[in-house]
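Appendix C: a fully annotated inverse folding record. The material below is reproduced so that readers can follow the format used throughout the book. The structure is listed first as tokens, followed by the designed sequence.
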């Protein structure tokens, strides 16, 4: 990135302009259930074209000093159309927008149904963002309603009083969005000013990042308006246990707006049959002969989901209100031993991938055709799992994981935590808040079997001990039902965070970043890696990343780096060691990466990272077939499914 520095002059970045933290409302209430249409709730997606303007003023602060939120954005100066959801970086032909750092402004004008504004009591109207990267401030009809830090989790605001106090039914939504990363954001970054005037223009700066994917920015996930009654179901928490022929669904329900007159629950199977009922804000539902939630390729009916209908009735101002919310529920258990990862009491081996939310043109914007294509490729591949590297993925993706039985290691945006200052209390407090948001969002998902709090931090630094002990303990307190890990590339003898994880997740790139081109070192080095980690910690191990870049269509025999043959050969060397160690304590392997993805420009990156087994356009490289043969073989060995189901035939 190369842009005029805000505030002028080299020196410390003037954050009040570049990353402007304004006093405002907190982002969202305690519950924030995923919006759904129910008999008592309506939702309206606001996708499509929004008005857009980048603040190109020297200080990036014109939008605030001129109060662009007070009037339609088109009246403040030139605007362009911008699709939502999408990253803004690749939409235009403007190179300055491709690499823009600072504040951009979005606006959408919508008309609300009158029924949303009328009644006594009138319904509650909520504005919700699936995610926007990185720091957001939102106004409705010129009134600030919410601000939120973080680019990968939802936030919302109750805008009822604002829209009912405005003339007509017009709702003008204005968003100021800043993609600047600092040492205390998650992920972290830093602004570097170039003070040598003989080499750089005045006020020249760059955004430095310590992670290997492009820092796409924009409104990346759906924006939704939805309604609830004035008294409503705010949150539902579900945990499940099972033994023999009985399962228990423990629940807690919170209500806001009034004390509920009645609160009833019904659990229905996929045929609509009620299998258990309950009442009250907390309790247990007992299910006889339950259909358990099983991972893909571990059962002939993976991803089985029940429907939990929660119904509340409450008196508000002498009027009886009813709210209904339906939550998908999968009944499954997770347990970790010193050598195994158990799902429903049976050993589970992760044979999966790491991914990115990344594609041509739309960047990190949610795209349904791409999502469905990716899941079809995962199932074709025989993959039973993935890690949300390196940030929480969209709720729409997580919904399909629940439904298809794809197991998820749910990772926070804690990538690139390398500088000592990123281990301080300011960073720590934000990291704790992010884990609260992530657990709040995904706590009820059966597909999520483990939390990952970070990827490849500088965990060899002494402050990492207190930092990760605190983050992991906090995550376990939020959700005692799941194991917690972080992904390390540190030396086993120097890692200060590893003592606190439940599962060791280790990344290594032997014969790529280390001893490049020397495939013959992999057996010795990978074997030593596993043995050293296990001897030290006596915990199961996942190879959470491994791989090699390959340029599609580049061939070499004997295999040379960047050829498709080298990628194949490297995978086979790793697999030979995996096959020995998965008989002992290695419980998984996740290839880096599912598909090629965009990165910052650099001398080692030719239009992005090429470690995908699929191209960025989702076409298979030769390595995809190596991995497919392996994953289906593993599935056949460990599954009790009929051979016709676990064959290489595609049954989608």
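Designed amino acids, in order:
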């Amino acid at each position: 990135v190369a842009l005029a520095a805000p505030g002028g002059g080299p020196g410390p970045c003037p954050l009040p302009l570049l990353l402007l933290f304004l006093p405002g409302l907190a982002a969202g209430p305690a519950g924030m259930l995923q919006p759904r249409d129910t008999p008592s709730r309506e939702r309206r997606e606001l996708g499509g074209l929004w008005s857009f303007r980048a603040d190109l003023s020297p200080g990036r602060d014109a939008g605030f000093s001129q109060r662009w939120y007070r009037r339609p954005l088109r009246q403040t100066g030139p605007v362009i159309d911008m699709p939502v959801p999408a990253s803004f970086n690749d939409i235009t032909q403007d190179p300055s927008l491709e690499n823009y750092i600072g504040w951009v402004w979005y606006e959408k004008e919508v008309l609300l149904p009158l029924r949303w504004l009328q009644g006594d009591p009138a319904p509650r109207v909520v504005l919700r963002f699936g995610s926007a990267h990185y720091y957001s401030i939102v106004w409705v009809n010129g009134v600030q309603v919410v601000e939120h830090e973080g680019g990968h989790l939802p936030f919302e605001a109750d805008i009822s009083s604002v829209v009912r106090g405005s003339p007509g039914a017009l709702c003008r939504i204005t968003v100021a969005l800043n993609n600047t990363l600092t040492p205390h954001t998650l992920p972290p970054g830093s602004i570097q000013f170039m003070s040598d005037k003989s080499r750089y223009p005045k006020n020249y700066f760059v955004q430095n990042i310590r992670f290997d994917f492009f820092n796409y920015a924009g409104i990346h996930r759906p924006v939704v308006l939805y309604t609830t009654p004035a008294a409503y179901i705010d949150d539902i928490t579900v945990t499940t246990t099972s033994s023999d022929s009985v399962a228990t669904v423990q629940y807690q329900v919170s209500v806001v707006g009034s004390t509920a007159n009645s609160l009833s629950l019904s659990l229905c199977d996929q045929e609509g049959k009620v299998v258990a009922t309950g009442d009250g804000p907390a309790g247990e539902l007992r299910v006889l002969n339950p259909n358990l939630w099983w991972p893909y390729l571990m059962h002939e009916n993976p991803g089985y989901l029940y429907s939990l209908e929660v119904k509340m009735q409450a008196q508000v101002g002498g009027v009886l209100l009813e709210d209904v919310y339906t939550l998908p529920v999968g009944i499954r258990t997770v347990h970790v031993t010193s050598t195994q990862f158990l799902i429903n009491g049976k050993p589970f081996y992760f044979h999966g991938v790491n991914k990115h939310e990344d594609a041509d043109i739309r960047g990190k914007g949610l795209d349904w055709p791409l999502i469905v294509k990716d899941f079809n490729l995962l199932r074709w591949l025989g993959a039973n799992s993935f890690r949300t590297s390196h940030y929480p993925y969209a709720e729409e993706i997580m919904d399909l994981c629940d439904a298809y039985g794809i197991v998820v290691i749910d990772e926070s945006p804690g990538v690139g935590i390398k500088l000592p200052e990123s281990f301080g209390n300011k960073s720590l407090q934000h990291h704790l808040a992010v884990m609260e948001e992530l657990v709040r969002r995904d706590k009820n998902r059966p597909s999520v079997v483990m939390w990952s709090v970070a990827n490849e931090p500088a965990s060899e630094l002494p402050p990492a001990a207190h930092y990760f002990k605190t983050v992991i303990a906090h995550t376990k307190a939020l959700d005692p039902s799941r194991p917690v890990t972080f992904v390390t590339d540190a030396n086993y003898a120097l890692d200060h965070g590893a003592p606190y994880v439940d599962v060791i997740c280790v990344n290594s790139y032997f014969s790529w970043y280390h001893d490049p081109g020397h495939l013959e070192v992999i057996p010795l080095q990978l074997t030593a890696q596993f043995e050293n980690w296990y001897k030290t910690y006596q915990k199961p191990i996942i190879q959470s990343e491994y791989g090699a870049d390959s340029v599609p269509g580049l061939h070499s025999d004997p295999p040379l780096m960047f050829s498709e043959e080298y990628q194949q050969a490297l995978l086979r060397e790793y697999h030979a060691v995996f096959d020995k160690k998965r008989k002992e304590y290695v419980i998984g392997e996740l290839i880096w990466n599912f598909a090629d993805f965009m990165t910052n420009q650099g001398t080692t990156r030719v239009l992005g990272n090429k470690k995908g087994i699929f191209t960025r356009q989702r076409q298979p490289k030769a390595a995809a077939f190596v991995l497919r043969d392996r994953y289906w073989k593993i599935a056949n060995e460990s599954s009790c499914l009929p051979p016709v189901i676990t064959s290489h035939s595609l049954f989608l």
